[in-house]
Amino acid sequence: MYTLDEAHVAVGFGKFQRFVLIYAGLGSILEAMEVIILSFIGESVKSKWNLSSTQESLMTTVVFAGMLIGAYSWGLLEYMYSFVLPGMGLLSVALMTSGAGVSSAFSPNYIVLAILHFLVGVGLGGGPVYTSWFLEFVPVPNRCVWTVVFSTFWTVGTVIEASLGWVSSSLPYPPICNLIHVLVEKCNYTLFYCNRSLKT
C-alpha cells in the first residue's frame, strides 16, 4: 500500500503531468499578461479621462486590493468545492480574470474601470491555485525543479504581453514602408521642381 507521495514517485512524471503543466502554465501566462497590461493602460486612461495622478495610481491599487481578497478566497473555494465540481476553482479564476479584463476594455468611465480592475485583482489572487494544483501531481523529489520550470510560464506571459505592445505600436510601419513607391510628391515640391527644371 502506497501513501499519496509514494504513489506519485512510483508513477513519475508522465503524459498526465505534462498536460497539467501546460494547462496550469497557460493560466499563469494569462495572469502575467493581465498584470503587465496595467503598466500600459495607466497613462492612456489618465490622458483620456483627465485623471489626477492619485486616480491613476488608484487603478493599480485596486488590483492589488482585489488580489489580497482573491488570494484568500480562491484557495478556500477550491478546497471547499473541488470535491463537488472538480476544477471549479481553476475555472472560476480564469473566468473572473478574463471576464473582468475583457469587460474593462469597454468601461464607459473611471468608476466602472476601477471596479472591473478590482475584480481582475480578485481573479489574479487565484494564481497560486494553478501552482499548487500542478505541484500536487508532481513527485516530491522533483517538486523543486518543476517549480522553477513552472515559474518560466509567468516570464513567457510577460514577454508575450510586452511583445504584443511593441508589435501593435509598430504595425503601421511595414505598410508605410512598402507603399512608399506608390505615393506622389507634394504639389509644391513638384511645381518647384518643374519650374526649376524649365529654367535650366
Explain what you see:
This protein is mainly alpha-helical and 200 residues long. The protein is built from nine helices and no strands. The chain has helices at residues 4-11, 15-49, 53-81, 88-104, 110-124, 127-135, 143-170, 173-178, 187-199. The radius of gyration is 25 Å and the shape is elongated. The model has no long low-confidence stretch (mean pLDDT 82).
Short description:
By secondary structure, the protein is mostly helical. It has nine helices and no strands.
Write the layout of secondary structure elements.
Blueprint: H1 4-11, H2 15-49, H3 53-81, H4 88-104, H5 110-124, H6 127-135, H7 143-170, H8 173-178, H9 187-199
Helix pairs in contact: 2-3, 2-4, 2-6, 2-7, 3-4, 3-5, 4-5
GO cellular component, one term: membrane
Keywords: Membrane, Transmembrane, Transmembrane helix, Transport
Family: Belongs to the major facilitator superfamily. Phosphate:H(+) symporter (TC 2.A.1.9) family.
